[in-house]
Amino acid sequence: MTSRFCVVGLVLLGSMPALAASRPRYGGEVRMAHAGPPEVGEPSLADTPLEATLLGLLSRPVCSVTTEGEVHPALARELSRPTPQVSRLTMPSATSAGAMARAWMRLTSVEGASPYRALLFPLRGEGRQISASGATLDLALAFPWPDLERGLCHPALAAPASAATPGPFSAAGRGALDAHLGWPRGRPYLDRLQLTATDERGLARLWSSRQVQVELGVSSETDTVSGPLLYATYLAFSPRRVPADFRQAVESAIDREDLTRLFVHGPAVPMPHLLPPALMQQGPKPRPAAPASKPSRTVTLVYDAALDDQRAVAERIQVKLHERGYTVALEPLARAALRARWAKGDFELMLHALLLPPAPGPAFAVVLDAAGRKDLLGVELPAIGSLTDAAARDARTRERALALGASLPLVPLYAQGLGVRAMAEVGGLVMDGQGLPALDGAYLLPPEGAGIGGRP
């Protein structure tokens, strides 16, 4: 059996200095609750932090990113660059290599169109012609893009969950997940995770009665920990269907601080610029004056029916735009329908939320595509990728995000993360660079005063 890799330099959740030094042990069950019954079937649609975390128990991308920005294999057994223009992924088997290639090609197809396809744009043919040679995937680049691997680690590029168990756990009945003993990176420490879906009141009740040991999706509290806030929400608009001064109307009407504090649950921050604060410094952005005219205009705002935050924010935007002369009709949609409308450009206003990669370049690519400006990818990305120094690439990306922000039909609103809390007996629970908890590294600590193996 592959030995469990050691996680170094990451901070444990909770305040447990005495127990944190205990030796990790294999075995045991952890009871975990999460807010709501999320959709976790299709990786490119399961892109809220909570959904990505739960899907990540069953299905992983080829690699993972640490909080320091380092890339390590996850589903892939090895990542390499035989030449600067080719990224080679060695998968566990020919079957897994073929499944991954098909999943990525679907992401770039018309029927599976997704803003996350921009992560594959630097590949030759934009990722539409990926093929496996045995257990190997050779990804040829159309232009230099040193940040390719950091983009490939995104949860939306995970393998589809299947009987092949491309993740650290496998389904074992209602709400139960068992450790996958053949996981390439080494089996999880825990034998089993027991999951319970509930609402916020249910989370509070289960926690106070100590019926669960880990909770995901909790609001900001003193014992809550979150990683980078990378789930960014934008108000997208169609320039062909709204007046030219619509952006000015929105920017003058919406107070992002007020919106984030009163209408968004969980860890969240205002986002006045194109990328969230975790990826670029948020300088002051004065609110413009209201447009001189007040057009009597009726528009429809579509939003994600599965997200309570979006409903609350949509209703707030409805009220504030009414003051600017707009009558806003609200239309909740399933996420698949929402993305289909985005792909066709069939909307007037849309709340568009994206889980951005933890790297400015790949995140910028996703945002440009989400804004309907795929044409800019071929202009902006080669210039960024030509810089060999990572800090210089990041700086160039931030400069271009600031320069283009006002010209894109996207109004940035706020960025969110996943609130997590754990009881003191759960150790090794860390947040990765994507801002998601790595639950396959969690373990049960022995009772206080017990020796190795839990024996006094």
UniProtKB/TrEMBL annotation:
For this entry, the protein name equals Peptide ABC transporter substrate-binding protein
Taxonomic placement: Bacteria, Pseudomonadati, Myxococcota, Myxococcia, Myxococcales
> Where does the signal sequence lie?
1-20
Q: Which residues form the Solute-binding protein family domain?
A: 220-365
Instruction: Provide the alphabetized UniProt keywords.
Output: Signal
Annotated Pfam families:
SBP_bac_5 (PF00496)
Entry keyword annotation includes Signal: yes
Q: Does the keyword Signal apply?
A: yes
Q: What InterPro entries does the entry give?
A: SBP_5_dom
